[in-house]
Amino acid sequence: MATEFTPFLSLAGGILIGLAATLLMALHGRIAGMTGILGGVLPPFADDWQWRAAFLAGAIAAPAAFLVAGGTIPFAVPVPVWAMVVGGLIVGIGVHFGAGCTSGHGVCGMARLSPRSIVATITFMITTGITVYVARHLLSIGVA
């Protein structure tokens, strides 16, 4: 499967993610870890569920507004549904035992120079590389 190199769009997206994480930390003293934010709006609700719901609504509304404005988001899933389900379960287990997700550790934790987040980020980056290699080259999953 070929991938498209989009350095300017990627840079813009990274800037927006960094800005959102910085504003959330500066204005609310909270880390922008998506699984932690989502967990607070699921029963039992966190005491501060309102800002969590607003953050998630914005994460959904922004791409929706982009589409309404006439933008397009090319999307293709090169793997079978069973592989996505298995991958989602594995990621969920990793988030639980790693005490956070890629956004919490990779964006916010790394920016704070948290040793735990640095180790977590190195671990999930290495694991991702191994997983892609095994899935594509040894199991031929997601190869057209």
From TrEMBL:
Domain of life: Bacteria
Record has Secreted as a keyword: no
Family: Belongs to the TsuA/YedE (TC 9.B.102) family.
Transmembrane segments: 6-27, 53-75, 81-101, 113-135
Coiled coil: none
PANTHER family in the record: INNER MEMBRANE PROTEIN YEDE (PTHR30574), SULPHUR TRANSPORT DOMAIN-CONTAINING PROTEIN (PTHR30574:SF1)
InterPro entries documented for this protein: Sulf_transp_TsuA/YedE
Any one Gene Ontology cellular component term annotated for this protein: plasma membrane
Membrane topology value: Multi-pass membrane protein
Entry protein name: YeeE/YedE family protein
Source species: Roseitalea porphyridii
Keywords linked to the UniProt accession: Cell inner membrane, Cell membrane, Membrane, Transmembrane, Transmembrane helix, Transport
Chief place where the protein resides: membrane
Compartment(s) where it occurs, according to its Swiss-Prot or TrEMBL record: Cell inner membrane
